[in-house]
Design goal:
Elements (H helix, E strand, L loop, with lengths): L3 E2 H7 L5 H9 L3 E3 L2 E2 L5 E2 L6 E3 L2 E2 L7 E6 L28 E2 L8 E7 L2 H8 L7 E8 L4 H9 L2 E2 L2 E2 L4 E2 L3 E3 L4 E8 L6 H8 L4 E9 L2 E2 L8 E3 L2 H37 L12 H9 L10
Parallel strand pairs: 9-16
Antiparallel strand pairs: 1-4, 2-3, 2-5, 5-6, 7-9, 7-18, 8-9, 10-15, 10-16, 11-12, 13-15, 14-15, 16-17
Helix pairs in contact: 1-2, 1-3
């Protein structure tokens, strides 16, 4: 395999997230052929010896599973109080897996589990803008204005939510609820529940139906299955596309900055920039980084 950045290699081995791996490197715990690694170093574990705390890093075959988390199940590997977790939904004899992001205790739906740290990073990190889709049932009849506010962004105590896509809404007079789909590119703790409470329509039921290209489909509540080869390849293509999109945006930003700097050095003044319109404001909001833990 080609040489990779050490933090990505450690994440791919399922040992840690990239952020944790970078911390290990800064702490001097990672070595390449006996030499202390530095941030930015690359290594090929097929021909080089990479160790963490003296133990050799061995790449394992990646595994991907999906579960349909019911309400009342924790999205974590283990719970100190002995409560049921998504790991209890898997069959016995599984390799070491971890959940990709989190769903809160009362939220249902799709949870992916893997030992592929790099793949999990591509689905989770807010800078890559991977989508997550939910079926939302909210209390009361939501007006068009409320749905539009949800789509454009709701002010919360930790800042406004990023723009989202809201599907057609249906009101159930018998249950006094409004049902609609919601697609996010960010995920803050209990974000959907907090946003709808702020709009005066608390969540009655919340089900995640998609992460990136992977859909929940007809998997029953409490069920689990491995991803097919085609589904794993689709996730890999999705991750590569998000990385390319991020790189292209970074290159355009750098080029713009270089152009402005060049104009200043040449003695001329930069041309005036038009004020951004609503579409540009919403587009800019989508690129703002959020915390990497995905919870709703």
């Amino acid at each position: 395999m080609p040489a990779e950045r050490v933090q990505k290699l450690l994440a791919s081995a399922g040992l840690a997230s990239r952020r944790a791996a970078e911390t290990w490197i800064r702490e001097g715990r990672v070595r390449i052929d006996g030499v202390v690694a530095r941030i930015g170093d690359r290594a090929d574990p097929a021909v080089q010896k990479v160790t963490v705390d003296g133990r050799r890093v061995v790449l394992v075959r990646h595994a991907w599973w999906m579960v349909h988390k019911p309400r009342g199940v924790l999205t974590t590997v283990r719970d100190s109080e002995g409560r049921r977790t998504v790991m209890d939904l898997l069959p016995p004899g599984m390799p070491r897996l971890f959940p990709v992001g989190r769903l809160d205790f009362d939220t249902e739906g799709l949870v992916l589990l893997t030992n592929d740290g790099a793949g999990a990073h591509a689905l989770l990190h807010p800078s890559l803008g991977s989508e997550r889709e939910y079926q939302v049932t909210a209390r009361g009849r939501m007006s068009d204005a409320s749905l539009r506010r949800l789509a454009e962004g709701v002010e919360l105590d930790d800042g406004p939510t990023a723009p989202a896509r809201v599907g057609p809404a249906r009101f159930d007079a018998r249950g006094d609820t409004t049902r609609f789909s919601l697609v996010l590119r960010e995920g803050r703790k209990r974000q959907i529940r907090r946003a709808l409470s702020a709009l005066g329509h608390p969540v009655v039921r919340l089900v995640r139906t998609r992460m990136g290209p992977q859909r929940l489909g007809r998997l029953p509540a409490g069920g689990a299955r491995p991803l097919t080869g085609g589904e794993v390849r689709a996730l890999a293509r999705h991750a590569a596309a998000r990385e390319r999109a991020k790189g292209g945006a970074g290159a355009r930003s750098a080029a713009g900055g270089a152009g402005r700097q060049s104009g200043r050095q040449g003695g001329g003044s930069p041309s005036p920039q038009p004020r951004p319109g609503p579409k540009e404001v919403r587009r800019a909001a989508r690129t703002q980084p959020r915390r990497p833990h995905q919870r709703s």
